[in-house]
Design brief:
The complex is a heterodimer of chains A (142) and B (144). Chain A has 142 residues and is mostly helical. In chain A, 73% of the residues lie in helices and 0% in strands. In chain A, helix 2 crosses helix 3 and helix 5 runs antiparallel to helix 6 (116-140). Chain B has helices spanning 2-21, 26-33, 42-61, 83-99, 103-109, 115-134. The chains are: A mainly alpha (142), B mainly alpha (144). At the A-B interface, helix 1, helix 2, helix 3, helix 4 and helix 5 of A face helix 1, helix 2, helix 3, helix 4 and helix 5 of B.
């Protein structure tokens, strides 16, 4: 179980929206995490320094969170093997590049523009995510 | 340089938002996806908050001739709904459900020093490389 945290989640979401908005205002770019990282992996010369800087910002933010409120990272470590995490990572990396975005690029920035493409992508990954959790927790585990 | 500093600050703020929202806790993400079990609706509120702010910003900011530190806005992403979009999103969802990680929170979680996020992000880079090798033609196309 995890606690239902509507207010903190709404406020955190607003901060995410603000961060994405600031990247649009200053640099004119969409804050899609898989696209920003994927451009580096592809060796895309465009905006390489900005991409690195954004990702360094994410990691530094993570370090700050770890120092101030380490509980935000949860207390898992039960049952999820490193091998499974590696496989999941490959699926996420391949899938987000094939589908052109992830929860940030499609789920936030795309939906906020009322992009039909992003709405279709978001409905798809929510559906397969829910099916996967259902299978793992309620079929395999029982 | 200004653009890079702005990107760094945006990344920092993004990370703090993810942490406050609960997105860096994989169990919370998996509970959001667990409609028939221990459902935690919190992440719907994350999306509402983020989309509301960005929808407003999109309307206001795009009225400018150009961004503050760059000559042009990135061109509008593709609009076509095809098998790549749906297939890619479907694969992503499976990995998301298995791990409770999507790309942003996984990268932020590197800051926690735990091994799990490191393995996940390593896998993610491998998956992106696989995509680049198997379908290089799409590698430079614009993304949503």
């Amino acid at each position: 179980m995890t606690d239902f945290t509507p207010l903190a989640s709404l406020a955190g979401g607003a901060l995410i929206g603000l961060a994405a908005s600031s990247l649009l205002l200053t640099n004119g770019r969409i804050a899609g995490i898989s696209g920003i990282l994927g451009g580096l992996v592809d060796g895309d010369p465009q905006a390489r320094l900005q991409r690195v800087a954004f990702i360094v910002g994410l990691v530094l933010g993570g370090v700050a969170l770890a120092l101030a409120t380490p509980e935000v990272f949860g207390t898992r470590g039960d049952g999820v093997s490193l091998a499974l995490l590696g496989v999941a990572g490959v699926l996420v990396g391949y899938g987000t590049r094939l589908g052109g975005g992830c929860t940030s690029g499609h789920g936030v920035c795309g939906i906020a523009r009322f992009s039909r493409r992003s709405i279709a992508a978001t409905m798809t990954f929510m559906a397969t995510g829910a099916i996967t959790v259902f299978v793992v927790r309620h079929v395999v585990a029982s | 340089m200004k653009a890079a500093l702005a990107a760094l600050c945006a990344g920092l703020l993004f990370a703090l938002g993810l942490g406050l929202a609960g997105m860096t806790n994989p169990a919370k993400v998996q509970n959001f996806l667990d409609f028939t079990g221990s459902w935690d609706a919190s992440l719907a509120f994350v999306m509402v908050g983020a989309i509301a702010v960005y929808a407003l910003a999109w309307r206001v900011v795009r009225q400018r001739a150009r961004p503050l530190f760059e000559p042009v806005f990135q061109p509008p992403p593709a609009t076509v709904i095809d098998a790549k979009l749906v297939g890619g999103a479907a694969l992503f969802g499976v990995g998301w459900g298995l791990s409770g990680f999507c790309p942003g929170p996984a990268i932020v979680s590197l800051g926690s020093g735990s091994t799990g996020p490191l393995v996940f992000v390593g896998g993610m880079v491998v998956g992106m490389l696989l995509k680049r090798v198997t379908m290089p033609a799409m590698a430079r196309s614009v993304r949503a």
